[in-house]
Amino acid sequence: MFKIKAKPTFVAPVPIPVPGGEPEPLTLVFRHKTRDEMNEYLKRTAAIGTNDVGPLMEIIEGWQDVDAEFSKDALQELVQNHHGSVTAILDTYVVELAEGRRKN
Question: How many CB atoms are located within 10 Å of the residue 49 CB?
């Protein structure tokens, strides 16, 4: 049965750019937002800085198969070491909310 109310969280792999190599998948547990909540979030975070993990903490609940426990400090370390990670995380989040994963 299709459920009108979305699950509060969802899991999605995020391709994190890795210097000198191919992007590596980081499996994140995201918090769901309604359409209105997402529009408000995007307006607030339009000028997100690559060093500011506060807005990311609002949408990420945790991660899977990572060598560190999820925390604001660990997320900050990820952002510092993988320069394209903020864009990759936000792009994946928006696509997952809007489209989900589609089978070929």
Answer: 11
